[in-house]
Amino acid sequence: MKRTRSESMADNRGKLIAAARKAFADKGFADASMDALTAEAGLTRGALYHNFGDKRGLFAAVVDQIDTEMAGRAKARGVAAGEGWDALLAEGATYIEMALDPEVQRIVLLDGPAVLGDPSGWPSQNSCLQVTREAVEDLMSDGILKPVDPEAAARLISGAALNAAMWIAASSEPESVLPRAQEAFRALVEGLLARPVAG
């Protein structure tokens, strides 16, 4: 059965993203060769330009894919931790922990901001922020969190997790930074609680 044009384009996009993901993880954005990765995908530079515009466009698609996967992993850990407050803490801690993953480190946390600018403007980060805001609003309506501005609280929680992850990624000793970052993240977020956590 003959594939439609849209199926063929989706397949090409998938091949390019997979090849680029490997190239950007192995070599970094600056040193990844477009000729090498298009050859790896079995496609031409023309296919890359048609689907993504340029190398930066392809990189943005890779970052979006990985960042979306990270959000899914954090959400799954949150669900496993329970509901409400426990879920919110587990999601943040998981996001920070993912900074130990070499692919996440290189592509999302180090090259991502350098190439794409402020992560708060990335579509994937905005969707994470929206989910965090909804969780914060629910916790406020249940009286668990102080009645502060929910968008401000969500932005500060998300920003703290992202900056902790970026600190770990940039560190020469990420394994030793992780527990310090997670402990400080938890202490910061607990400051939003309406009542102190029982010892």
TrEMBL record:
Coiled coil: none
Domain HTH tetR-type: 10-70
Pfam families: TetR_C_41, TetR_N
DNA-binding region: 33-52
Record InterPro entries: Homeodomain-like_sf, HTH-type_TetR-like_transc_reg, HTH_TetR, Rv0078-like_C, Tet_transcr_reg_TetR-rel_C_sf
Domain of life: Bacteria
Alphabetized UniProt keyword annotations: DNA-binding
Name listed for the protein in its UniProt record: TetR/AcrR family transcriptional regulator
